[in-house]
TrEMBL record:
Keywords: GTP-binding, Hydrolase, Membrane, Mitochondrion, Mitochondrion inner membrane, Nucleotide-binding, Protein biosynthesis
Annotated membrane topology: Peripheral membrane protein
SUPFAM superfamilies according to UniProt: EF-G C-terminal domain-like, P-loop containing nucleoside triphosphate hydrolases, Translation proteins
InterPro entries xref list: EF-4, EFG_III/V, EFG_V-like, EFTu-like_2, G_TR_CS, LepA_C_sf, LepA_CTD, LepA_IV
Keyword Mitochondrion attached: yes
Coiled-coil region: none
Domain Tr-type G: start-end pairs: 4-181
Domain of life per record: Eukaryota
Protein's UniProt name: Translation factor GUF1 homolog, mitochondrial
Stated family: Belongs to the TRAFAC class translation factor GTPase superfamily. Classic translation factor GTPase family. LepA subfamily. Belongs to the GTP-binding elongation factor family. LepA subfamily.
GO biological process terms held by the UniProt record: positive regulation of translation; translation
Classification of source organism: Eukaryota, Metazoa, Ecdysozoa, Nematoda, Chromadorea
Reaction catalysis annotation: GTP + H2O = GDP + phosphate + H(+)
A GO term from the CC aspect: mitochondrial matrix
Amino acid sequence: YPPEKIRNFSIVAHVDHGKSTLADRLLELAGVIKPGEQHAQILDKLQVERERGITVKAQTAVLKYKDYLLNLIDTPGHVDFSAEVSRSLSVCDGILLLVAANQGIQAQTIANFWMAFESNVTIIPVINKIDLQGANIEKVETQLKNLFEFNPSDCVKISAKTGQNVASLFDVIVKQIPPPNVDRQKPFRALIFDSTFDHFRGAIAYVLVKEGVLKKGQKIKSYHSDKEYEISEVGIMQPNMRQTVSLLAGQVGYVICGMKTAKEASVGETLFDAELGRETVTAFPGFKEVKPTVYSGLFPVDPADYENLKQAIERLSLNDPAVTIQPDSSAALGLGWKVGFLGILHMEVFGARLAQEYDANVILTQPNVEYRAIVKDNETIRKKRFEGQGEIRILDASKFPDTTDIEKFLEPMVKVRLVVPNEMMGIVNGLCTECRGERGEISSIDEDRMLIIWRLPLAEVIIDFFDRLKRLTSGYASFEYESDGYNETDLIKLTLKINEKEISEFSQIIPAAMAKDRSKLLVGRLKREIPQQQFQVDIKACVGASSKVLSSAQIKPMRRDFMQLLKGNIGKGGKERLNKKINHQKVGKERMKMLGNVQIPKEAFLNVLKN
Ligand code: GTP
């Protein structure tokens, strides 16, 4: 297939609008899979992905149509991975923007449109699910016209389920999407757009060959990680891997070359002929090191599981280049890790995979974000206390600087796109205001729904924003978010005291505006978790050097008759009760931790800190 007979395209859609179903139908029509044969990946969906509305991968596959070779390229569709989606779009020359006729344009449709638009790829609007009773094709046409200026006559109307009109897409793809702009005469150069990890073969990189040819035995280099590899296998996806002799420029396929982790096969990485000097090679644009935005502590519920868990985490992270993992420990929770994620959904998916695939029993502590502090422009302070740095990053309460040294604190912000029914505008705006948001543009999608843009502190979004949004709108709102710089903020260190003793495990750095709610939450949880003692227990949440109390609670001492019992004043039947109590306490003792003079069960720590 010469390049002009190749088309590289992708299907993008809001969750549940039919991406996997359409991919299956196209594969069937092209004779790649038999009718009714579902691809395993579709069945692999995790519960949390379903609940959270995360689009899982459909598949990457080679389809033959007439004398054309069509590469259906799958993009990672995770909401937290917008940056990844836009990078993998760079290997496509066109997309099918799928919109379900019963639901119309949703938040992810809008995000996907703009990403494709900015990447300069051809966008083909496709209205799906036209077989449904609730389908309103005209309405969706109007939405596509209003928002993106598509002509109704250019929208392809299909039912991926029944197959109605799906075959017509092939012609549209061939006619409207340009062939890849590639050169087979030049030395080899390719772009990685996705990767998976195989425990036997290492990382498998999915690539678009832009220049030259790739063959088994060939030596190649990676641009950003600057490593050399020898190709042990190349092939195409059908949609299962099928080994081929070579991959020519314009082709999409897989490469196995002894990469040990998925990180080496990062999305956006450039591979090139090892005979070329790195200086002479131009890397493809768009490579960015993935940086986590949300951090959480991860601990085994039972410390004895530490070693097993360590292995599970290592294996899982081989597969997931976006997580960052550092050892962490806490006097109360034992050994664990500080794990960085791209977002909360990513965090939940990681936790769910540990539980489902590795049977691991873990707790993830309340997530937090990384703040920045700009140190005062004072040479002496910088040298003495901040190793000469003018800016520091704060993740842990233990690293909180003396505020008199700091000129200002900054917190990460996100841009949230919300699609909401008109009558729910009020409650949604109320929620965003409560979360310290700044309102952006509002536009109408049709007579029933609005697109609202808000800029919110990430720290607010990671608590329970999306759950509250879903609850408040009975699931009728859809959303999408992306990083959007930093805002100046007022940060404080919140400390918890039990009978005046500070418990460092519970200390947190948060924006002052969130301190009151967080204090109440933590004090309330502690009050519930700490058992009665022989004396009164005072719990306080304090802030700042002056230890101003933001919230407090007391736990009353045990009742007198039980104290008598302990002192040996045993009445009728008392001995039995006492023995029972003592035995019970013996068992419990090992699980208890003394904080000053107060006994706290280990579970209390988990229950207070967990997400
Ligand atoms: P995620 O992978 O979860 O993002 O969803 P998706 O976009 O891949 O959608 P999927 O193909 O899983 O379809 C979602 C649901 O819609 C499934 O129950 C499909 O059977 C159904 N569906 C897809 N296309 C059609 C269609 O044309 N008509 C009808 N009636 N149902 C459809």
